[in-house]
Amino acid sequence: MDITTIIGLIATTAVMLLTVLSSGSLASFIDIPSIYCTVGGTIAVTVTSYPLNELMLFVGVMRKSIFTKTPPVTETIATLVSFAERARREGILALERHMEEIEDEFLAKGIQLAVDGTEPELMRSILTTELDYMAKRHSLGQAICGTLATYAPAFGMIGTLIGLVLMLQTMSDPATIGPSMAVALITTFYGAIMSNCMFLPIKDKLKRRSEEETLIKEMMIEGILSIQSGDNPRIVEQKLTSFISPKMRRAIVEK
Fold this sequence. Notes:
Layout: H1 3-23, H2 32-49, H3 52-67, H4 73-90, H5 105-115, H6 120-168, H7 177-228, H8 233-241, H9 246-254
């Protein structure tokens, strides 16, 4: 699980609560009809914007992207170099005996293709296509989060307009203007909170996790092709470390 997502959401909630409690009563910021308008309206219009199968896919993408930890790049390099050493020493067919050690389905599929003697270009095409579709699934998650972030402030504004209309109908009683105005503005507050404290940060996290996973899978493709071509393990390592920063390369060399 990516602990930073949980820490960030808890910290943001704590900051908001401290701000509210330092300024007044929490009860002043709770209005059930405003929650219906902002939360319900945002979810309803997002459901309208996407087909059911994409919304169902979004749930899986969110869960996997946030709660599934991407293995470190250095760990992936070490795994591929160890497979290169085995292939060099025992032959590439010997890798089939070590398939159960591979937890990543993408890497297992690539190694199996290499063991089966698949042509390099065909193997690259198969793995690249799978990588492209993974990126599309991830971009769908980002798009739906972006839609939620867009509509939350919009429904906050709609709620404020509804509140202003109702307030103007009771202008004959000056005592009700202040409380009615406060309630009218709460929906805008809810919309801003939902957009800026939840949906936009999660969208950024999904984008970052997608970039990390794409980089690791691109490394896997190059590593598998290099192993299949019979490269020396040190050459495999050199090829893979070209994907990472000089600082991380030094850390691998020093191990």
